[in-house]
Design brief:
The complex is a heterodimer of chains A (about 325) and B (about 325).
Chain A lengths: L3 E14 L6 E14 L3 E5 L6 H8 L7 E6 L2 E2 L6 H6 L2 E2 L13 H12 L5 H14 L5 H5 L8 H14 L4 E5 L7 H16 L4 E6 L2 H7 L2 E6 L2 E7 H6 L4 H9 L40 H5 L4 E5 L2 E4 L1 H6 L1
Parallel strand pairs in A: 3-8, 3-9, 6-7, 7-8
Antiparallel strand pairs in A: 1-2, 1-4, 4-5, 9-10, 10-12, 11-12
Helix pairs in contact in A: 3-6, 4-6
Chain B lengths: L2 E14 L2 E14 L3 E5 L6 H8 L7 E10 L2 E2 L5 H7 L4 E4 L3 H4 L6 H12 L4 H14 L16 H13 L5 E5 L7 H18 L2 E6 L2 H4 L5 E6 L2 E7 H6 L4 H7 L40 H5 L5 E3 L2 E3 L11
Parallel strand pairs in B: 3-8, 3-9, 6-7, 7-8
Antiparallel strand pairs in B: 1-2, 1-4, 4-5, 9-10, 10-12, 11-12
The chains are: A alpha/beta (about 325), B alpha/beta (about 325).
Chain lengths: ~325, ~325
């Protein structure tokens, strides 16, 4: 098996919310542990409020963790990240219209990244490399695209530039936070193919954060399902998709629109509920209020990780009873 | 079933520094009462502009430059502002893409519902409160939220509150502009199911625009595919999904990965839509089309019936010369 690049252990991040009288603590991520291995795409899947973007931001050093450790390339990350670490773990943001400086040419965005992170290269080498990077993410012809201004690029091209920028710093792991969710359906697949190509041809590792299970299945080797700040299920993509164990994963699967299949899950109420905001949580499974299988045990005790197979785990009492 | 909306050769242009851009060209379709028609296409294909033109909401630099929008036989584009105002909410309501921007953040949900009622009815406060609670109940929102502000509701609830407002005066047609695009998959499904349940109960027609056709695949009666301002294919939803005929529709169907089907490599549709200021002569999709032929670049095909649905393509209708 390939070596572990990123190892997250018991990561927790809380935020203080509310005013003077109603002060509370929002548990955005709660005791999350997972690993990413070299040459893998790992998908973090969940709804809004599940904590998936908080994980990416903590990893990118945008805010420090409340507790827990992050081991990256064998070293434990401290409170402040060096430029070198940031370069080895760059982030591609969700909004391609807000993440590129509109008054500078596209080439500048790439050059800047190269200058900061690849200072050993000469100017001509950097220029050459910028064109190569542009070509490798499908911005062809690279030379011509780099001479344009951002407003001359479509959303899909901007997001490709985001990946080229991330590649420029010679990364070990790329954090991609919903990189395709603001793009049109017809363009998304092109970007997903860029991610696959980066893994298969360039050996890159990616942490792909998304709410879209179908796209996660298309690109990812492993899948981690988050609910209200906790991991509820994780495993190889095909295992999770073929045999989802946690009731929440099953709900997500049944609601993902797929025109190729008959309409699933049409029984029961029209209101499928929403994930909670986890302010000052008490013990118990976070999904219990929406779960049909919930018992008193679920409402009073935190579920523990149950092994479904060597490579597939779920945090659910119901799965434990069946096992 | 009677026809409630007839759109005939609708043309919309935007004034741009480079000249007029033809955002919607020659769009015609009928909508029967109680029917659900979905319109899909990429950003910039003119689908939202078309909705705004039908609802008579276009503002400069966009303007309707031709065609008719007949609602119950009356051409909406010939009406003055006051005549239109009387029809809004009562006959036609519009649900916008972003409920967060469409709702007033400084007023409670109840106040905003009451505002609509006061503008269009002579109900007293008690009747307004009753009707408001009733429409909120239809979209599974508790009436305590009449006194909530928009920021106190989740994204899904805000979008449902917008639909409740659209239902207040029991319109015959509800126009929806990507109401689900800001929502999570679970909230999306729950909203779509609610729209469908209400449509069956109340019998309003729905005109629904989205870029994600998988959202409507199980709900709409008919599906229209738009490209560069034109309808390129229109037909029964299942028919278009199962047997798409226009190369663009085929590409769209191939553009999203399946959750449970066979895992296969997908390609999407390479290239970008054409300029609408100086559109190429011939078929507008020719430059991106994998099956382009010489005649496609010479003249533009027309939208012609081919069996169960209509398609704008020489491959399907060899004689469709415009």
């Amino acid at each position: 098996m390939s070596k572990t690049i990123l190892k997250v252990t018991n990561l927790t991040r809380t935020f203080r919310v509310g005013g003077f009288r109603s002060r509370g603590t929002l548990h955005a991520i709660d005791n999350v542990s997972f690993e990413v291995r070299a040459g893998q795409i790992v998908a973090l899947v969940g709804e809004s409020g599940s904590g998936k973007s908080t994980i990416a931001r903590v990893l990118a050093g945008l805010y420090p963790p409340t507790s827990g450790t992050i081991e990256f390339e064998g070293a434990t990350l401290g409170k402040r990240m060096s430029r070198q670490v940031r370069g080895r773990m760059p982030m591609v943001f969700q909004d391609p219209f807000g993440s590129i400086n509109p008054v500078l040419r596209v080439g500048h965005a790439l050059q800047r990244s190269l200058k900061l992170h690849r200072s050993e290269l000469s100017k001509t080498e950097r220029e050459q490399l910028a064109v190569e990077l542009a070509n490798s993410v499908g911005l062809v012809p690279g030379e011509e695209v780099l001479a344009r201004f951002p407003h001359e690029l479509s959303g899909g091209q901007r997001q490709r530039l985001g990946f080229a920028q991330a590649l420029a710093s010679n990364p070990a792991l790329i954090l991609a936070d919903e990189p395709v969710s603001m793009l049109d359906v017809s363009i998304r697949i092109g970007l997903l193919n860029v991610m696959r190509k980066l893994r298969d041809e360039d050996g890159a590792s990616l942490l792909y954060i998304t709410h879209d299970l179908a796209s996660a299945r298309y690109v990812a080797d492993r899948m981690i399902v988050l609910y209200a700040g906790r991991i509820v299920e994780e495993g190889t993509t095909e295992e999770v998709i073929a045999a989802p164990q946690h009731p929440y994963t099953k709900l997500l699967m049944s609601t993902a629109p797929d025109p190729r299949l008959p309409l699933g899950g049409s029984e029961g109420s029209d209101d499928l509920g929403e994930p909670p905001k986890v302010i000052d949580p008490v013990a118990g499974c976070r999904f219990a209020p929406r779960c049909e299988l919930a018992t008193d045990e679920c409402r009073t005790k935190d579920p523990v990780k149950v092994e479904v197979s060597m490579t597939h785990h779920a945090a659910c009492f119901a799965v434990k009873w069946q096992a | 079933m009677s026809t409630i909306l007839q759109v005939r050769n609708l043309e919309v242009q935007y004034q741009t520094p480079a000249g007029p851009a033809q955002a919607v060209s020659g769009v015609s379709f009928d909508l029967a009462s109680g029917e659900f028609l979905a319109v899909v296409g990429e950003s910039g294909c003119g689908k939202s502009t078309m909705l705004f033109a039908i609802a008579q909401l276009l503002t400069y630099p966009a303007a309707q430059t031709g065609g008719q929008v007949l609602f119950d036989g009356v051409d909406l584009s010939s009406l003055d502002d006051e005549a239109l105002r009387l029809r809004r909410w009562r006959d036609i309501s519009v649900v916008m893409q972003s409920a967060m921007n469409a709702l007033n953040p400084t007023l409670t949900i109840g106040a905003q519902l009451a505002d609509t009622c006061r503008a269009h009815t002579d109900w007293d406060d008690k009747q307004i409160a009753e009707r408001s609670a009733e429409v909120l109940a239809m979209v599974s929102i508790d009436k305590v939220h009449l006194s909530s502000y928009p920021f106190q509701l989740s994204g899904g609830m805000r979008q449902r509150a917008m639909i409740a407002m659209a239902l207040l005066l029991e319109p015959k047609l509800i126009i929806m502009d990507e109401p689900t695009s800001a929502l999570d998959v679970v909230a999306q499904k729950s909203l779509m199911r609610q729209v469908e349940t209400l449509r069956q109960k109340l019998g309003f027609a729905v005109l629904f625009v989205t870029h994600d056709m998988s959202v409507v695949s199980h709900f709409s009666d008919r599906l229209a595919v738009m490209y560069a301002g034109e309808i390129v294919e229109i037909g029964a939803t299942r028919e278009v999904f199962d047997r798409p005929q226009h190369p663009y529709s085929v590409g769209l169907m191939e553009a999203f990965p399946s959750l449970l089907g066979a895992a296969k490599e997908l390609t999407g549709i390479p290239g970008n839509p054409p300029s609408l200021v100086n559109p190429p002569s011939g078929c507008l999709f020719a430059d991106r089309c994998p099956k382009v032929m010489d005649e496609c670049r010479k003249s533009a095909p027309e939208l012609l019936a081919n069996g169960p649905h209509s398609v704008r393509c020489y491959l399907v209708n060899p004689k469709a010369r415009g």
